[in-house]
Design brief:
Length: about 475
């Protein structure tokens, strides 16, 4: 069986005459708009005319780097798309409207795809809220046992059980996710706190990744001859910063391979093929190059450095003109007031309500603020959430006063916020590219951005997702 790495978390599997794609991003970038693209890093191009047409495509979850509608639109209509039973209906409908056939796999039950079998396992319940619907994919063959693709969620008990009890046959390859996404030194991460609170976890260290791959996964799953790691393989345009730390495949391979005693560790680059074959009782793996994935020249990380201090200066969707600003602000206030009752009634909102002390002493009813910018950070309008009547009001304060008197808040550009609320931009794109936050406490999962990940998810706001998929289907985005 060949396991071909296509970049980020996309894979292709070939065995005999059977071809399966997992979470395919087939274009050079992913993203939902022309204005903001996430380019697969290291750069590569897929020659679609030479790619074997898939007998099935597995989608492990609905996130942008796994469920890439633009790539599914490139496949011949009627392609069989396999999803887990927690895959959102709005995403399923979007695939069907492309002319494909969606098949829901019962949890942990294999289905045949010609010579191979595919099964999906729900990830561990302890995964982050927005990753609870992620499935692990298992591709099984009679001769080579199973390849497990972890995808983003924590490894589930049932997968560990089935792997250890031999239900999946020999495990020939485990593909782990490096989801640390640690920005280069000095660049802002998604959960960064504008308050000097040393908030959040220390950034994941390379040694954490080493431990996860070399110790934690084999301890859980049992004997595995081959491990591969992927993830963190994209850069944004317009750029925020260069590639993530610990996403350099060659360096990781150099460090990890000699440290591993019990299994071979592979950190592939896009286009590399892990060719698994049985030699007696052993599973051997040769690393070859796919002929239909072309490596392109990749920009050096130095070329991104000047972006890192200025990333918030410009919006994704551009400046709102003077003649449109009044309407844009009214629209933004209306969307905030739609969210306000939800915000105050959730555990996050209740935590905000319980925060009675801030920098200058006791705080009043305004506990959460949104500072709306119009490209230049000096042009700012703020709205504060009064938790006593669950409504946002304009704040007559300077940028500094808002930050020092309201304990929780976000910074966002007006055009981008309105695009989010119109289904023209997805929350993950906005949060990773052009949103800042401040919050009390040390837990980044109890922060405005983490809360927005839940609030704007495909389940909670399916109408926004449906509009976005409609927009994608009716437009031809760059990179395709
Ligand atoms: Fe992912």
């Amino acid at each position: 069986m060949d396991a071909i790495f296509l970049g980020q978390q996309s894979w292709a599997f070939h065995a005999g005459g059977t071809n399966i794609l997992v979470d395919p991003v087939l274009s050079e970038s992913f993203g939902t708009s022309e204005e903001l693209q996430f380019r697969i890093y290291p750069y590569r191009r897929i020659n679609l005319s030479a790619m074997p047409p898939p007998d099935a495509v597995v989608i492990t979850n609905e996130h942008l780097d796994h469920f890439h509608l633009q790539s599914l639109m490139l496949l011949r209509p009627g392609t069989r798309i396999l999803v887990g039973d927690l895959f959102p209906d709005v995403c399923r409908r979007a695939i069907e409207e492309c002319g494909h056939v969606v098949q829901t796999l019962p949890d942990e039950r294999p289905v045949k795809v010609k010579d191979l079998a595919v099964s999906l396992y729900r990830c561990a319940p302890a995964s982050k809220f927005w990753e609870k619907r992620v499935c692990h994919a298992v591709i099984s063959s009679i001769h080579l046992g199973s390849v497990i693709i972890q995808s983003d969620g924590l490894v589930s008990e049932s997968l560990i059980r089935d792997a250890r009890m031999g239900v999946l046959g020999d495990i020939s390859l485990f593909i782990a996710t490096n989801n640390a996404q640690v920005p280069p030194q000095g660049a802002a991460g998604t959960y960064e706190n504008l308050l000097p609170l040393n908030a959040g976890r220390p950034p994941a260290l390379g040694v954490d990744i080493f431990h996860e791959v070399l110790c934690a996964i084999p301890e859980q799953v049992g004997s595995i001859p081959h491990l591969a790691v992927c993830g963190g393989g994209y850069v944004q345009f317009p750029a925020k910063h260069g590639h993530f730390r610990w996403s350099d495949a060659r360096a990781l391979q150099r460090y990890l391979a000699p440290l591993s005693l019990a299994q071979m560790v592979h950190i592939p680059e896009p286009g590399q093929c892990l060719r698994l074959r049985r030699c007696g009782d052993e599973i051997e793996c040769d690393v070859t190059q796919s002929h239909w994935v072309e490596r392109l020249d990749t920009a050096s990380s130095e070329s991104f450095v000047h972006m890192e201090s200025e990333w918030f200066q410009r919006s994704v969707f551009g400046e709102v003109s003077n003649s449109e600003i009044k309407d844009a602000l009214e629209q933004a206030l209306a969307s905030l007031n739609f969210l306000a009752p939800i915000l105050v009634s959730t555990p996050f909102g209740q935590g905000v309500a319980a925060c009675h002390q801030y920098v200058g002493g006791p705080v009043g009813g305004i506990r959460f603020a949104v500072r709306l910018f119009n490209d230049s950070p000096s042009m700012m309008t703020s709205f504060g959430l009064d938790i006593t009547d669950a409504k946002f009001f304009p704040l007559e304060m300077t940028e500094e006063e808002v930050l020092t008197s309201v304990p929780f808040g976000i910074d966002v550009h007006i055009a981008d916020w309105n695009a989010l609320n119109e289904g023209r931009l997805q929350i993950w794109e906005l949060a990773t590219a052009r949103m800042r936050q401040w919050y009390m406490g040390m837990d980044p999962l109890f922060s405005p951005i983490a809360f927005f990940y839940c609030l704007f998810s495909e389940q909670v706001r399916p109408s926004l997702a449906a509009r976005m998929y409609q927009h994608i289907r009716s437009s031809k985005l760059p990179g395709i």
